[in-house]
Design goal:
heterodimer, A: globular, B: ABC transporter involved in vitamin B12 uptake, BtuC, globular
């Protein structure tokens, strides 16, 4: 029997914020990469590598914080591989990104084979004093684990960086027109490598959020397309950081709602409910006429040309 | 200092040599990986790459090569059209699943009638299913300018859920005592895709051969093949030459989806036998590696599919005989694609050692 009253709207909205966090983290990293003119389709591979690196680190050290640091490093190191191939060897970015995903899935399965079935160390929620005590809003917004706020802080930081800082302007110039940026004396490849590493680190954090907080366990292929959804949300956001939040919360909302409907015993079979986040992502891609992509997105840069 | 200098034309020698060098590099790095996992590197490499072909049990493994290679070649041939034209269908895994579901559904609908018409009908249903599934991202790209990479990939996850629902629901074997999974199609004569099970021959192998020949002729001799190559190398020139880019997207997506769907149908009616929750094993993704490794060329794809099939079978032998983790093989396959992309720089660029001189 379906019992909709079992769904608590406050809990629903609170878990929406948690469900959106891994996507926010991965997407904001990819946003910076794409604003620098690089299309890294390996987000899924970097996420799952981050998930396993973070999990191994956290289990062995007992500290989720160290786990997240390990995940960021793991994701960034893997992204260097992509950077080396696309920036120095001028490999096709689409193909290299796909390779990164396939490679990351294999690598993580191999690294994590002795960690299946172990529980991650506890990562307690913050109960922010005063703010957390506000009725309704408190439990929804101010009683989460620290990574939820780290994710939001990164989004705001990226927004400010791109909008107000000189370095952000250079990064955008490199992404819009790498020939012109090169002619002005900026190091196109260096800027892009840094952006790629940032993207890798963020994807790693997003993956670790899945394995350390959301699930919290390690299973093979546990990202289940989250990296690809992050890529879709960057397009949805028209490469603007603040709109990215909207997309991620929309996605988080669909995910949480379908999980709640499953638990409430909705008459629709579980499989069809599980499809809904992916279908919603497609719908969003169709409905949103996306803004203009960075001018040099996906093109290799070679100074001789 | 080491510099890259663009070649006026891609090097012919490196086009052929790059995949070979990539395989050698993968063997070396794979050996290091196996050594790090505590396995004897040379023995493991030999087990993976040579034992399936030349050991005393090779008679058992060689038919397996056809069984694993056929779907890979079939899917990769389809993908190569789109990849050449810059249309990235990476959801072949989903089209493979949907093809299998549609084909199996037709076969199961006729059970237990025996007729020579049933199998051809199943093939048509499989191809149609795969084609339609691939046309979803195609049409969305043409109509709404959505990204085909993302949509086709999202549809893989949708197809996986659909597969689970079919295995547990509509297509479940009514005599299966409640276990998930459909009736065994391989044991239903009119629906079986086997020609000779002992030789590893099924209709998918035949279809793969036909696809290779068809693709070769199309790409080298037909206007459509020319348009595909033109659109990939110079989209602007293609537009001036009167190539309709939207039609090209639909046709390329349709071809790749249809072949992936066919591969799924041949698999479910033969080697796999039934629709089950874990029916798909990632052929659709491995086929991407196969397509690139074969340089998007039909003959190359055939060879690459053989090599990939070898690593699958050799990997299984190494898994059971040497205790090599299955993920190590997956990692090695990913590595192969990386090395290929890495070595590929030499096809388009020349390495130059240049002294630091005053400009």
């Amino acid at each position: 029997m379906m019992d909709l009253s079992a769904i608590n709207p406050i809990l629903l909205l609170a878990s929406l914020m948690v469900a959106a966090t891994p996507i926010i983290l991965a997407a904001v990293g990819e946003l910076v990469v794409e604003r620098a003119g690089v299309l890294n389709l390996g987000v899924e591979g970097m996420m799952i590598t981050g998930a396993v690196c973070g999990f191994i680190m956290a289990v062995n050290s007992g500290s989720p914080l160290l786990g997240f640091i390990g995940a960021a490093i793991g994701g960034a190191v893997l992204s260097l591989l992509f950077g080396f191939l696309t920036q120095f060897l001028l490999a096709n970015q689409v193909a290299t990104g796909l390779a990164l995903t396939l490679f990351g899935l294999g690598l993580s399965a191999l690294m994590g084979q002795n960690y299946i079935g172990i529980k991650a160390p506890e990562f307690p929620d913050w109960h922010i004093p005063l703010l957390g005590d506000i009725p309704v809003i408190g439990p929804i917004v101010f009683q989460h684990d620290p990574m939820v706020y780290v994710g939001l802080a990164i989004v705001v930081a990226v927004w400010a960086f791109l909008k107000f800082s000189r370095a952000g302007l250079i990064l955008r110039a490199v992404g819009e027109n790498h020939e012109a940026a090169h002619a002005l004396g900026y190091h196109v490849v260096r800027v892009r490598m840094l952006a790629i590493m940032f993207g890798g680190a963020c994807a790693g954090l997003g993956g670790a959020y899945l394995s350390l907080v959301r699930v919290p366990q390690w299973t093979e292929g546990m990202t289940a397309g989250a990296g690809w959804i992050a890529l879709a949300i960057v397009v949805f956001a028209s490469w603007k950081p603040m709109r990215l939040l909207l997309g991620a919360y929309l996605f988080g909302g669909v995910t949480v709602l379908q999980l709640n409907l499953q638990a409430a015993g909705m008459a629709i079979p579980v499989e069809y409910l599980s499809m809904s986040p992916y279908l919603a992502t497609i719908a969003v891609l169709v409905i949103m006429r996306s803004g203009r992509a960075p001018g040099s997105l996906g093109q290799s840069f070679h100074a001789s040309r | 200092m080491l510099m890259l200098e663009k070649r006026p034309q891609p090097s012919k020698i490196w086009t052929l040599a790059a995949p070979l060098l990539a395989v050698v590099l993968t063997m070396i790095c794979g050996g290091l990986l196996f050594a790090a996992l505590g396995k004897a590197p040379i023995e493991t490499i030999r087990t993976i790459f040579f034992d399936p072909l030349f050991s005393e049990f090779a008679w058992f493994y060689r038919p397996q090569l056809l069984i694993k290679g056929a779907p890979l070649a079939l899917i990769a041939i389809g993908l190569s059209f789109g990849f050449r034209a810059g249309i990235w269908n990476i959801g072949a895994e989903g089209q493979y699943i949907v093809g299998a579901i549609c084909g199996a559904a037709v076969g199961l609908a006729f059970y237990p009638t025996e007729s020579f018409l049933i199998f051809p009908l199943m093939v048509i249903a499989g191809v149609l299913g795969g084609t339609l599934w691939a046309l979803i991202p195609g049409i969305l790209k043409v109509k709404f300018d959505t990204n085909e990479i993302l949509v086709s990939l999202m549809l893989v996850y949708v197809a996986e859920q659909l597969l689970a629902s079919m295995a547990l629901g509509a297509l479940r074997n009514p005599d299966g005592m409640g276990f998930p999974g459909s009736r065994n199609l391989a044991k239903y004569d009119s629906a079986s895709s086997w020609i000779s099970e002992n030789a590893g021959m099924h209709w998918g192998v035949v279809a793969a051969m036909i696809a290779v020949i068809f693709a070769y002729v199309t790409l080298s001799r037909h206007q459509f093949g020319f348009n595909v190559r033109l659109a990939g190398q110079s989209p602007r020139a293609a537009r001036f030459a009167g190539v309709n880019p939207k039609l090209l997207v639909l046709v390329c997506m349709g071809i790749s989806g249809g072949l992936a769907g066919a591969a799924g149908l041949f698999e479910v009616a033969g080697p796999a036998g039934q629709i089950s929750i874990d029916f798909n094993v990632g052929y659709g993704f491995t086929a991407i590696i196969v397509a690139f490794l074969g340089r998007l060329h039909p003959i190359g794809i055939l060879l690459a599919a053989g090599l990939m099939a070898l690593t699958y079978i050799g990997g299984e032998i190494a898994q059971s005989n040497l205790g090599l983790p299955g993920a190590a093989i997956q990692l090695m396959q990913g590595m192969l694609l990386f090395f290929l992309l890495m070595v590929d720089v030499l096809t388009n660029y020349r390495l130059r050692f240049r002294q630091e001189t005053t400009v």
